[in-house]
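Q: Mind making up any chain with structure tokens?
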Amino acid sequence: MSFSPQKDLEPNKLAMYFTLFYTLIFMVLSLLYRNFFNTILFTFIAVMIVDALASLIKRIFRIPKKLSVVISLVVCFSAFIWGLVTIIPTAFTQLTGFYTLITDVIEKRAWEQYIQNNEQLLAMLNSLVDFIKPSINELANYLLKLVASQIPGALVVLFFTILGIIYVSIYSSKMIRVIPLMYPRRCRDYIHTFVEELKVSMRRFIGVITLNAIIVGFAFFVLFRAMNTNFAPLIAFWAFLTNFIPIVGVVFEFVPVFLFSLSLGLEGVLWVLFFTVIIHLGVFVFFFEVMKGYAKANPVVMIFSILLTSEIFGPVGVFFGVPVSVFVSVFYKQFVHPQFERD
């Protein structure tokens, strides 16, 4: 009597093992070829954004899917070019001045004038700043060296990402239908269900995060423009970028913004604190309202996923934490949880 692993395994287990195998191949390739990983990551996130916008356009205007995808691509690339030509150059031009201002705030310990009567709090803040001050300088030097060394690779990634966004967005339906063909015939129904749920959850998840990032970035731009500061584009760009990293990104966003607010006086500090709490509370509620009924990653899983992917793949890996957490959540729901519930 011959033993065939594929025939003896249950279809759902077979689908699970093949998925783990393909995931392992992807991880190995990503570790060996970073440009490959970066291209896949940015293409994937961008395609999810295009797909989410296309679905919204199709629902509103009741037009064919392919036409809605083309319109979505035009809108997304127009927004990208607009940002590339207007906001991003201005933000990078202001970066040196912003860094000088932040270091000046730290050197002069601008917060001391606001909390002179609370010696314990003052001592704690001074100790904290003394601890992070070297890290800020090291981070600035690291980012400058990183940008300089990664420009050739970044151009390659950008070129193939643009091609990937166009072709994958247009032919995504055909590509999704091909995925089950990479699995044994008797487990394809499970894979089809898994891929469909992963697609819907990922599109909704990334779409909401993108919308949150746009809302927060625009809100910070309006606030700091109303306060007549010259760094509104830079702060808005930073807020937009960091809000693609759920939970952890808020900390990355807030530290430089808070240090900058110390240069605006006590009233400015209070306005920035109040505004930050209100805007993030709003997008937090919006996020969970929209995600009701969809596969959600546990916040703890999300945090550890971001930490793990950043350790493995470097700074770019922090943006990979969200897709990984959604993948793990859907994978657990489809394959692992049913095994635990069996008699």
